[in-house]
């Protein structure tokens, strides 16, 4: 059990129903089961998770009389959210497996325990949901265990991958991170910026200057000091990459001190915890959350005033307790520090909203690269030109490129200058520890749009057939193909599937279902990677193949930022396949320069 039974019995916020139910499970479940009370779950807060490492997993909601106002529909929806988050985001390999074999979904179950009700009326209350396990207080005997945990006595299930269990446990009960010396060294400027400080601060720099590395190291240092940290991005994929960077940090800390989310996911977590309806448009989510937060704070203040006047009537006791539960839930989302990557993708409204989830320590660290403003945001708020912005002092800047090879950094600067993105930055050829200093390969081909599939395949073969270097044949996992459009990505994935080349990709294909999470699994996944430029922003790869489409609906300035972002994703080699007239002249000029 996590925590142990002895520790649980000392917790004051453990309800009678929780203690009764957990003790029952601990007494009668076979020893190969693991019980997690209020597990970490990366920013969500289920009551209980049961894990059989070789048999499956079950998420339980425990309802005492104090929570009985939650409707069956709301409780079922909350449990489904927890399960789907686990399958699609925390261990996304599971969603791929379910796509291939939907029967494997059966090993992920959900359940409700109603401490204030007997089994029959509880079953009637939830009769609309036949696949939801429902248990009442009279089910808590050894003979009824099979009703409470269906399949509890199946030691192994053919659908359960033991590797999933190992990854699941890291999210349910995060391990302690030990100092890892990986050979990464920071510059003096970067080291200074990793030092945690209360207050709101900004950092900007070009791609390859080490912004995300600084953010990752800062998060690790905060966790070392037992600070509660939220690392938040715009791109739904980027936080996985940041987590891997933190994994390589030379610090000792508890992983449960760091929550990783993208902004939309953070908002959905809040909607789920507070049983709020999910608006159909994302632009409507913030007003819903803002109104809910306002109500919770008002109720909390009213409670304090009532208690101070000592005029609380017995009739209102239940309301006061309900308010207290919501206030406690809000406290679970309070952080000592919030670190925002991809700040150029944020609006003032988002920044202002996140600021409300800081506790008194009030540390917010925002990093950005205005050249990568691929969503064409209005950014004057970051420069302090708006009210209610708490940034202190001048911008901190990283003005030297370390990650990109010299040839690619020069290309990026020339592109930036040609298309007016912003001023260029210096390349430090003496700093070799933060980037791959082997000779780089670069090629720009202007091609016809109707030939793009064949040309991309030929570019892939250029990397995979030792055509660049006789000493090395690049693995598929070391190659990424970047495209700006989902439709083209789907065509390309199916093209490679027909050539028996497995792909780790972000697209929905004819073989996909609702379960597939549109993300790159891991930088270490052995398959060829195919992604939109937007989804790969913030990531990097030794070899990048970029396709620039013939037509673009976002406007020239936006396309310039998208191309710049893609070019700067490489660690070593780059092939650009351009179908767009806007860049043909630039590509022709490059042939005389490189």
Description:
- By secondary structure, the protein is of the alpha/beta class.
- Helices cover 37% and strands 18% of the residues.
- The protein contains 20 helices and 21 strands.
- The strands form five sheets. It has a six-stranded parallel sheet with strand order 10-8-11-12-7-13. Strands 16-21-20-17-19-18 form a six-stranded parallel sheet, sandwiched between helices. A five-stranded mixed sheet has the order 1-2-3-4-5, sandwiched between helices.
- Helix 15 links the parallel strand 14 and strand 15.
- Helix 12 packs across helix 13 (317-331).
- The radius of gyration is 26 Å and the shape is globular.
- Residues 314-323 and 423-436 have low confidence and may be disordered.
Choose one word for the global shape: globular
Low-confidence region ranges: 314-323, 423-436
Strand order of the largest sheet: 10-8-11-12-7-13
If you compute it from the alpha carbons, what radius of gyration comes out, rounded to the nearest whole angstrom? 26 Å
Number of strands: 21
Distance between the termini: 62 Å
Task: Summarize the amount of helix as a percent range.
Answer: 25-40%
Mean pLDDT: 86
Instruction: Specify the structural class.
Output: alpha/beta
Q: What is the overall number of helices?
A: 20
Largest sheet, if any? 6 strands, parallel
Q: Strand share of the residues?
A: 15-25%
């Amino acid at each position: 059990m996590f925590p142990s039974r002895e520790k649980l019995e000392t917790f004051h916020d453990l309800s009678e129903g929780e203690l009764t139910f957990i003790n029952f499970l601990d007494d009668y479940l076979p020893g190969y089961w693991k019980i997690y009370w209020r597990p970490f779950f990366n920013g969500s807060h289920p009551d209980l998770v049961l894990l059989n490492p070789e048999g499956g997993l079950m998420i339980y909601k425990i309802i005492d009389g104090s929570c009985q106002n939650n409707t069956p529909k709301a409780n079922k929806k909350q449990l489904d959210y927890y399960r789907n988050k686990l399958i699609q985001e925390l261990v996304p390999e599971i969603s791929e497996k379910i796509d291939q074999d939907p029967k494997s979904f059966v090993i992920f179950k959900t359940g409700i325990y109603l401490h204030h009700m007997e089994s029959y009326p509880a079953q009637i209350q939830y009769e609309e949901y036949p696949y939801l396990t429902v248990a009442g207080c009279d089910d808590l005997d050894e003979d009824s265990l099979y009703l409470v945990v269906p399949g509890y006595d199946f030691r192994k299930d053919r659908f359960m991958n033991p590797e999933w269990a190992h990854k699941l446990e890291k999210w349910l009960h995060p391990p302690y991170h030990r100092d890892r010396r990986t050979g990464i060294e920071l510059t003096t400027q970067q080291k200074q910026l990793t030092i945690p400080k209360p207050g709101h601060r900004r950092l900007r720099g070009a791609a390859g200057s080490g912004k995300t590395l600084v953010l990752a190291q800062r998060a690790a240092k905060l966790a070392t000091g037992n600070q509660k940290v939220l690392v938040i991005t715009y791109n739904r994929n980027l936080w996985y990459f940041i987590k891997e960077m933190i994994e390589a940090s030379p610090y000792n800390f508890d992983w449960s001190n760091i929550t990783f989310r993208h902004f939309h996911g953070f908002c959905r977590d809040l909607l789920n915890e507070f049983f709020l309806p999910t608006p159909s448009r994302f632009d409507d989510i913030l007003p819903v959350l803002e109104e809910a937060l306002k109500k919770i704070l008002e109720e909390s203040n009213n409670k304090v005033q009532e208690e101070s006047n000592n005029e609380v009537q017995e009739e209102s006791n239940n309301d006061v307790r309900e308010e207290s539960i919501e206030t406690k839930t809000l406290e679970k989302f309070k952080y000592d520090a919030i670190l925002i990557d991809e700040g150029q993708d944020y609006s003032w409204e988002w920044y202002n909203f996140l600021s409300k989830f800081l506790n008194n320590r009030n540390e917010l660290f925002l990093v950005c690269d205005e050249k990568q403003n691929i969503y064409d945001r209005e950014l004057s708020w970051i420069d302090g030109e708006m009210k209610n912005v708490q940034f202190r002092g001048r911008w901190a800047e990283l003005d030297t490129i370390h990650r990109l090879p010299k040839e690619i950094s020069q290309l990026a600067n020339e592109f930036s200058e040609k298309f007016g993105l912003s001023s260029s930055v210096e390349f430090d050829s003496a700093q070799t520890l933060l980037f791959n200093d082997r000779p780089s390969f670069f090629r720009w081909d202007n091609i016809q749009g109707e030939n793009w599939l064949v040309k991309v395949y030929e570019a892939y073969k250029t990397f995979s057939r030792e055509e660049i270097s006789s000493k090395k044949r690049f693995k598929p996992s070391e190659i990424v193909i970047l495209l700006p459009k989902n439709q083209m990505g789907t065509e390309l994935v199916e093209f490679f599937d027909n050539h028996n080349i497995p792909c780790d990709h972000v697209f929905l294909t004819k073989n996909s279902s609702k379960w597939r999470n549109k993300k790159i699994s891991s930088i270490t996944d052995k398959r060829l990677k195919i992604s939109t430029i937007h989804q790969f922003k913030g990531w990097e790869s030794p070899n990048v193949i970029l396709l620039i489409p013939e037509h673009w609906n976002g406007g020239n300035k936006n396309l310039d930022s998208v191309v710049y972002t893609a070019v700067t994703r490489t660690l070593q080699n780059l092939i650009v396949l351009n179908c767009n007239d806007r860049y043909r002249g630039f590509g022709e000029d490059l042939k005389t320069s490189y």
